[in-house]
């Protein structure tokens, strides 16, 4: 059987010395689409931050896309992040350059050198999110939904094994949320694994999938009833 892309054993999540979550043991397998739900302040973002090593793993054991979170040296964090695609609620595009150059910036920062290959890759990821003609636009010239598609395209640049999306539809209206969700579903269908924090229950109903819940300092799988 394929190795999990994410495997946690007895993990606790901390914000400084405060324990936010504990006793987390779970596996995410290649190709899964997993939701992470929970009330405001229940620890979804802290959980995600631990996975991309923005918060250190101080307790328990965790492996993600082949990296050991417990023993990960600081110098390896960029390598880990290159194998992850991270999407945030607030898009985090660079406002001072157009979309093409936003994506070029990431490719250069992650070691790409050949300008022909970089242009081809940018075209490919923009095409995947239906934004092929928007490379010349600046972020402020795009709608929220379009900016999030670009942020998803940016997350795809280095062909990540796992996409971590922290409330990717949190700033979008319901219709635009569904459009962004369709893009994520398409990406999942091509075999990529996605872990998405959300509190948009309408989306979960429309696109049911494995769901983890943060509640009472724990993370557990919610078993959905059929029908
Ligand atoms: N930078 C920080 N420093 C200290 N405590 C923090 C920090 N960020 C979050 N916390 C605390 O950690 C707990 C979990 O917060 P977190 O942001 O992970 O929750 P969340 O489920 O993502 O919430 P939301 O849905 O509002 O984004 C909260 O009690 C919060 O106050």
Distance between the amino and carboxyl termini? 31 Å
Number of helical regions:
7
β-strand percent reads 25-35%
Bound molecules: adenosine-5'-triphosphate
Order of helices and strands: EEEHEEHEHHHEHEHEE
Amount of helix: 25-40%
**CA-based shape:** globular
Overall pLDDT score? 95
Number of strands: 10
Domain ABC transporter: 6-226
Keywords: ATP-binding, Nucleotide-binding
GO molecular function: ATP binding
InterPro entries: AAA+_ATPase (IPR003593), ABC_transporter-like_ATP-bd (IPR003439), ABC_transporter-like_CS (IPR017871), ABC_transpr_LolD-like (IPR015854), P-loop_NTPase (IPR027417)
Provide a brief overview of the structure:
This protein is of the alpha/beta class and 227 residues long. 33% of the residues lie in helices and 26% in strands.
Describe the protein in words.
33% of the residues lie in helices and 26% in strands. The mean pLDDT is 95. The protein is built from 7 helices and 10 strands. It is globular, with a radius of gyration of 17 Å. Helix 6 (174-189) links the parallel strand 7 (162-166) and strand 8 (193-197). It has a 6-stranded mixed β-sheet, with helices on both faces. By secondary structure, it is of the alpha/beta class. Bound molecules: adenosine-5'-triphosphate (ATP). Adenosine-5'-triphosphate binds at residues 15-16, 20, 38, 40-46. Adenosine-5'-triphosphate (ATP) binds at residues 15-16, 20, 38, 40-46.
